[in-house]
Amino acid sequence: MMDWTDSHCRVFHRMMSRETLLYTEMVTAPALVRGGVTHLLDFDPSEHPVALQLGGSDPEELAEATRMAVDRGYDEVNLNVGCPSDRVQSGTFGAVLLKDPDLVARCTAAMIRAAGPVEVTVKCRIGVDDQDAEAVLPDFLDRVSDAGVRRFTIHARKAWLQGLSPKENRDIPPLDYPLVHRMKAEWPDLHLSINGGITSLTQAEEHLAAGMDGVMIGRAAYQQPADILLTADSRIFGAADPMRDPGEVALAMIPHIERHLSNGGKLSQVTRHMLGLFAGRPGARHWRRVLSENAHRPDADARLIEDAMAELA
């Protein structure tokens, strides 16, 4: 979800759900520690609960980045051991780390020492390339949980580090949900969430009913946010839903947009995340067109939201 789940996206999603845990884009530890790009840690207080997702493979750098995250007030720090992109592989982090679970254990142990009361978690794949996932994944969970990690999110696909693009890695390797379910049965004391190919709350409920502790939904929550998030609190958490319909959400975003513009920001930096708000509903195409064609204009302001809503009728 790099370049997708920035702070504006998370503020928008939080409007629809108070209970779900939101994740940042993956931020690399070297960028924070050596590059000084600490603005990547910025978030709005309304985003809580929010987790920082880190990439890296140096225990000391990851520990320092974790301390920075804790100082900023993040609710969780997550180590990404699942991203298959070439850019990530060249830095020796992401899914390639599944080949070195002992290094992941050292990294997470250092992060846990630096995190204090803030939980350190891991997101991973079931394996990479020609690895035997039935053997690799249990070994990985064993070694990394021995280092102190109690929560894992498992993308139920392998990552192919050669021959497939990051997009193809989200679709082509077959899903193996039963393997992830078996891991939960074998490690009842670990908190295991499942990820990959889940596009509806109904599917999420099925995985929870099968024993999983949590479900991570990525692109579906971005592309059709109202379908995933508007009733997530009541259906998944047994809590009240904060808003009732997409139109209410659109109007609720106006104060955030106005603050962003007053600070010198651009309207399109916010509205690009809102294009799918009415997905599957009458007028959705007109909503997207108005925002897409006009949000980049120099004089565009929050009134464009109301103009776009007028096209829904």
TrEMBL record:
Belongs to the Dus family. DusA subfamily. Belongs to the dus family. FMN binds at residues 53, 123, 155, 195-197, 218-219. It catalyses: 5,6-dihydrouridine(20a) in tRNA + NAD(+) = uridine(20a) in tRNA + NADH + H(+); 5,6-dihydrouridine(20) in tRNA + NAD(+) = uridine(20) in tRNA + NADH + H(+); 5,6-dihydrouridine(20) in tRNA + NADP(+) = uridine(20) in tRNA + NADPH + H(+); 5,6-dihydrouridine(20a) in tRNA + NADP(+) = uridine(20a) in tRNA + NADPH + H(+). The record marks 80, 167, 170, 285, 288 as: Interacts with tRNA. This is tRNA-dihydrouridine(20/20a) synthase. It comes from Maritimibacter alkaliphilus HTCC2654. InterPro entries: Aldolase_TIM, DUS-like_FMN-bd, DUS_fam, DusA, tRNA_hU_synthase_CS. Its EC number is 1.3.1.91. Transmembrane segments: none annotated. Residues 1-308 form the DUS-like FMN-binding domain. Keywords: Flavoprotein, FMN, NADP, Nucleotide-binding, Oxidoreductase, RNA-binding, tRNA processing, tRNA-binding. The gene is dusA. The keyword Nucleotidyltransferase does not apply. GO terms for molecular function: flavin adenine dinucleotide binding; FMN binding; tRNA binding; tRNA-dihydrouridine20 synthase activity; tRNA-dihydrouridine20a synthase activity.
